[in-house]
């Protein structure tokens, strides 16, 4: 949707260029994920460095000589720090943002220490995996993810990440909820695509929508008698074209799935009444296609 919208705004007809940008934007989601996960590792490393420096001070206090190491001994943070899947991904994709921007880690660490999540966790010095897992989950959800300084950094670093942050945070929170101390579910960096068909779908939907925009628009223009084509919000028109493209050119995608997906996009990105407008048009089109046998879906339960 965003890529097609960008093409319209730029009056671009360079399909290859825009498709390349689309896949690059998707690829960047993994970098954002790695940056967010590695922030937790760097928070632990930064605190460990601070504790060691404080302990070695000439006039160190008794508390500095015998600090509460519960945070840096957190079993989940250590698991992430030692995880091969994460280390390999960070190395392969050259993710070293926090090495060059450690001031943001210090800002985050200060926010962590000021939080009730941290203070409640540090009331004793004992570590157990379940408490450590809950703490990291709550810390990420309540302190790290909502941090405005971190958000500003991510927005400045790559503008396309603004819309990806909620998705990435949701994935990380889900992983933290399911984390196990060992075995196959301990931790693994997720794949960008479920399989090759998943990636092919991205390309196919983009190309089929762009190359058939005129024909797809004709499917709904005469279904909106109270709206001139120029009065339909551009995002709404794009969403309608994409949905109709799925109806007619993707027989394996259930109609209800298509409608639900595009109504959610309309609620997120378009006008307050867009989802009602789009829902009405798509419902009418589905009935028309069914009556004319134009809607061909394969497999069970796809209508």
TrEMBL record:
Gene Ontology terms: biological process: DNA-templated transcription termination; transcription antitermination
Keywords annotated in UniProt: RNA-binding, Transcription, Transcription antitermination, Transcription regulation
RNA-binding keyword on record: yes
Protein family (similarity comment): Belongs to the NusB family.
UniProt-listed Gene3D superfamilies: NusB-like (1.10.940.10)
Domain NusB/RsmB/TIM44 intervals: 196-287
Organismal lineage: Bacteria, Pseudomonadati, Bacteroidota, Flavobacteriia, Flavobacteriales
Claim: Nucleus is one of the keywords in the record: no
Name of the molecule in the record: Transcription antitermination factor NusB
Any Pfam family hit: NusB
Organism listed in the record: Flavobacterium cyanobacteriorum
Single GO cellular component term: cytosol
GO molecular function: RNA binding
């Amino acid at each position: 949707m965003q890529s097609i919208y960008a093409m319209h705004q730029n009056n671009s007809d360079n399909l290859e260029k825009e498709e390349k940008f689309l896949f690059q934007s998707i690829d960047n989601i993994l970098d954002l994920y790695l940056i967010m996960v590695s922030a937790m590792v760097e928070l632990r490393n930064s605190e460990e460095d601070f504790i060691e420096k404080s302990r070695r001070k000439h006039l160190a206090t008794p508390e500095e000589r015998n600090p509460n190491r519960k945070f840096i001994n957190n079993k989940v943070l250590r698991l992430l720090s030692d995880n091969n899947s994460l280390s390999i991904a960070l190395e392969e994709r050259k993710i070293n943002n926090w090495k060059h921007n450690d001031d943001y880690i210090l800002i985050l660490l200060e926010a962590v220490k000021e939080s009730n999540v941290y203070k409640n966790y540090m009331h004793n010095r004992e570590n157990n995996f379940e408490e450590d897992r809950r703490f990291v989950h709550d810390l990420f959800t309540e302190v790290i993810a909502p941090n405005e300084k971190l958000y500003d950094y991510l927005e400045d670093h790559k503008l396309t990440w603004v819309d990806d942050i909620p998705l990435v945070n949701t994935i990380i929170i889900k992983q933290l909820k399911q984390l196990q101390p060992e075995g196959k579910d301990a931790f693994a960096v997720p794949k960008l695509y479920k399989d090759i068909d998943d990636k092919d779908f991205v390309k196919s939907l983009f190309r089929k929508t762009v190359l058939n925009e005129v024909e797809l628009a004709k499917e709904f223009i005469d279904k909106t008698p109270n709206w001139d084509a120029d009065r339909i919000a551009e995002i709404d028109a794009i969403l309608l074209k994409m949905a109709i493209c799925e109806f007619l050119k993707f027989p394996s995608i259930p109609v209800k799935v298509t409608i639900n997906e595009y109504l959610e996009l309309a609620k997120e990105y378009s006008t307050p009444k867009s989802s009602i407008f789009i829902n009405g048009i798509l419902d009418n089109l589905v009935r028309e296609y069914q009556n004319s046998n134009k809607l061909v879906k394969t497999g069970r339960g796809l209508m």
